[in-house]
Amino acid sequence: MSLPFPVRLADMEAAEARYRDASAEARLAMHAELAFYGLLEDGERIILERRFPNELAGEPTADAPLGVRVAWDFRCRELVVAMLCYGDLVLAGKLDLVGAVVPQEPVEVLALTATGSMVELRRPDADGRRRWVYRPSARQDGRYREGNDVLAERVKLGNRMELGGLRTSEVLVLAAGEALPDPATIQERTGSLLFAPAKDTGASGPVPDGVRVAGTRYRVLVDAAGNASDAERPLIQKRIVALAAEIQAMLSAGGGAALHEVAALVTSSGSRYEVEVTSDGRIDLTRHSAHGQKVTLQYADAEARGQTVVKGAPLVIEHIAFAGNRVCSYIFRVAEIELR
To answer: pTM (2 decimals)?
Structure first.
């Protein structure tokens, strides 16, 4: 890296602080100005482009369409936030930035991968095994994995890691030291729906710039709702629902299926929602994780006020939460629809 990592963290922290304090319109303006894109190095931008080849098609130059610029910058912000989370741990643990760690080196290791995940490696035991924990740090619904394995090869910047049956993406930053800090002692940077959808899911043809801009504006509004006060959140949620309906109309010429006409839908991140219409006319949804986990989430008495279910469009579902309150859940892109 051309600059020491902690120095870059100061610039990233300043940009993120401005973003979190900004209105939804100001946030979109920051993305249009490539506020976060400028904080990353060429190699990190290349990684993002390779990870989202359809979404990030085209260079985000000053002459690029607004949709290209804001899509690029939104993804760059996600990586910036992941680097800030990682930096909190590196600085708290007084770890040294390194280029590589060999399997038997008697140090503890913290790695940040290209997908924003963090990997903790404890010191090797007498048999050469290291306890490891893989944390999808920026994902709100991510579940960590752990194991105890012998490293097959050294951990090196730019390489993937093989941990048991887990193969990570490329290592972006690597640090080592006497002891890793407990992640539970670090204040998490919450309130942002980062890395959703989790991967590029392809495109069924050119996406009009107006749809690209509206789609990113939807994500910015959702992000703003997550950081809003309780008093401000309902107004932002109304704007999100209205924008989702607008995008649905753009992609379906005003058509689309009503929620009660849908048997199931799959999102671009792979989650599957099964829709049940009860005998008294209520709609209940069951969400199944994209990762094959048995855990499901129930969405009781669900509604999609003023919206239709349209392939390629977002969707806001209002439903009863566990505490009995009505809340909104946000789908960023419907990938598949099964009608009744």
So the answer is: 0.75
Residue numbers of the domain that contains 153: 94-180
Tell whether 257 is covered by a domain: yes
Mean residue pLDDT across the chain: 84
Asked if 46 and 76 sit in the same domain, the reply is yes
Give the Cα-Cα-Cα angle 85, 174, 49 (nearest 5 degrees).
75
164-203: pLDDT as tens digits: 888 888 899 999 999 998 766 655 555 444 444 445 555 5
Q: Which of 39, 59, 89 is the last residue of a domain?
A: 89
Rg of the chain over all Cα atoms, to the nearest angstrom? 21
pLDDT, residue 325, reads 83
Indicate whether 207 belongs to any domain. no
pLDDT in tens, 280-323: 889 999 988 766 555 577 888 999 999 999 998 999 999 997 77
C-alpha count within 13 angstroms, C-beta hemisphere, residue 249: 9
Per-residue pLDDT, averaged over 88-105, amounts to 91
> 199 in a domain, yes or no?
no
Residue 324 φ/ψ region, left for φ over 0, alpha for ψ in the -120 to 50 degree band, beta for the rest: left
The pair of structure tokens assigned to 244 is 């989702």
Is residue 22 within 8 Å of 227, Cβ to Cβ? no
d(CA 167, CA 177): 23
Q: What is the end-to-end Cα distance of the chain in Å, rounded?
A: 54
Task: In whole angstroms, give the CA distance from residue 157 to residue 111.
Answer: 9
- Give Cβ neighbours of residue 28 (< 8 Å, ≥ 6 apart): 70, 216, 217, 220
Q: What is the domain count for the chain?
A: 3
